[in-house]
Amino acid sequence: MTLISPTVPVAPAGRLRRSGLARAARRHPLVLIGGGLLMLLILLALLAPLYAGDPQNLDPFVRLQPPSAEHWFGTDNLGRDVFARTIFGARVSLMVGLTSALLASSVGLLIGVVAGYVRSVDNVIMRVMDALMSIPTILLAIALISLTGPGIGILIVAVALPQMPSVTRLVRSVVLSVRDRPYVEAAICGGAPLPKILWRHVLPSTIPPLMVQGAMVFADAIMTEAGLSFLGVGVPPEIPSWGNMIASSRLYLATAPLTIFAPGIFLAVTVLAVNFLGDGLRDLFDPRAKRRR
Asked: Is there a contact between 41 and 268 (Cβ–Cβ < 8 Å)?
């Protein structure tokens, strides 16, 4: 006798992937909104040379013109296209912010792991971090730039340095909670070398909170870069950035408001998108935080 099993309908793989993405979007909408806005801004910045025009083109005959078909956001006090400068300014702000966040997260991760696992140097490292945290972010960045002179490279270091203590303290707290767990002690008793213990048993626990903290550092870095450029110690004046644009156009708010509002709105939307992404990642990695709110 032959047994015939009933046919079970199988959904196509594409439909399963789409349903999984839809489920994830419903559960964590902030990740979708923040990530989508951020990807759109990055795409606009990367493709800027294809559609935005020359941000350095001077035309004194069209100074402080209102928006038009040729100049979507109008022109500034030197006749430069505000739309082109705003889009190219996104490249500077995103590049400085992302690079600073990666630098601060990488160095903070390394120092935090050492401070949390090697008890003999913990106290010294944390006192240095406390000293850095006691100095205001803008003041510390200005002091560093004044010692070396302006430039993109030193600006990235100046923006990243004040963010390292917060990352270090976060990673250290995670390592302190992990190093005494049974599986770490078992690896130590089994004779595993220290690099292997850190790589396989300690570092994986630091990645989720580090991603959330990295998003917050990214937003703070963008704001710090804009503030330094506004004060004239950030990006050189010949390079378009949102801070430079706001600083150079503050005297023309009444006659050409878009020269300030355009970079200001882009700056606000970028920081909001990164904060949304950070909040969504926190809900994704720690559902208890969402329930508490």
From this structure: no
Nearest of 91, 86, 101 to residue 266 by alpha carbon: 86
- Give the domain extent around 148: 87-292
Q: Residue 269's pLDDT is what? A: 92
> Which 3-state string (H, E, C) describes the chain?
CCCCCCCCCCCCHHHHHHHHHHHHHHHCHHHHHHHHHHHHHHHHHHCHHHHCCCCCCCCHHHCCCCCCCCCCCCECCCCCEHHHHHHHHHHHHHHHHHHHHHHHHHHHHHHHHHHHHCHHHHHHHHHHHHHHHCCCHHHHHHHHHHHHCCCHHHHHHHHHHHHHHHHHHHHHHHHHHHCCCHHHHHHHHCCCCHHHHHHHHHHHHHHHHHHHHHHHHHHHHHHHHHHHHHHCCCCCCCCCCHHHHHHHHHHHCCCCCHHHHHHHHHHHHHHHHHHHHHHHHHHHHCHHHHHHC
Please report the pLDDT score of residue 26 as a whole number.
Answer: 65
Q: How far apart are CA 224 and CA 233, in angstroms?
A: 11
Residue 125, domain member (yes or no):
yes
Q: Return the residue matching tokens 């991760």.
A: 109
Q: What is the domain count for the chain?
A: 1
Residue appearing with tokens 């599986």: 183
Note whether residue 146 is domain-resident: yes
Interval 151-206: pLDDT, tens: 788 888 888 988 899 999 999 888 888 877 777 777 777 777 777 777 777 888 88
